[in-house]
Design brief:
This protein is mainly alpha-helical and 118 residues long. It has helices spanning 6-24, 30-49, 57-72; strands spanning 91-93, 101-104, 109-113. A three-stranded antiparallel beta sheet has the order 1-2-3, covered by helices on one side. A hairpin with a 7-residue loop joins strand 1 and strand 2. The longest helix is centred in the middle third of the chain and has 20 residues, at 30-49. The radius of gyration is 14 Å and the shape is globular. The chain starts with 5 loop residues before the first helix and ends in a 5-residue tail after the last strand.
């Protein structure tokens, strides 16, 4: 049996995590899923150029999708912690690192790991 390519494993995991967050927030429409696929394709090339970055792929795909949604539809995912003031999006932290989480920078609170939004 052939070993699973770590790059493909990381890309599939990133796709699954971001799709889980999109489903949890009820925005997993076809156009949005296409953003995920575009990001995964781009990040495949990125990791091929910098193999040491494979552990950062999930956070980068989440950020790519978040940026794509902002350009096309608006902020995502909205912060569930702050009830007062203008709605704002969660951030992915670390911006370039393993074990990415959605955080509210305003309240300095970790909301959920990427893939764990409810």
């Amino acid at each position: 049996m052939d070993a699973i390519d770590p790059l493909e494993q990381a890309l599939h995991a990133a796709r699954a995590l971001v799709l889980a967050d999109l489903v949890a927030r009820d925005v997993a429409e076809a156009e949005v899923v296409s953003l995920v696929e575009e990001s995964v394709a781009h990040r495949r090339w990125w990791v091929e150029q910098w193999p040491e970055g494979v552990e950062y792929v999930a956070g980068l795909v989440a950020q790519d999708v978040q940026d794509g949604l902002l350009e096309r539809y608006g902020r995502w995912p909205l912060c569930p912690v702050c009830e007062d003031g203008d709605p704002h999006a969660l951030d992915v932290e670390p911006e370039l690192g393993p074990d990415p989480h959605w955080v509210c920078a305003k309240a300095a609170v970790v909301v959920a790991p990427v893939g764990g939004l409810t």
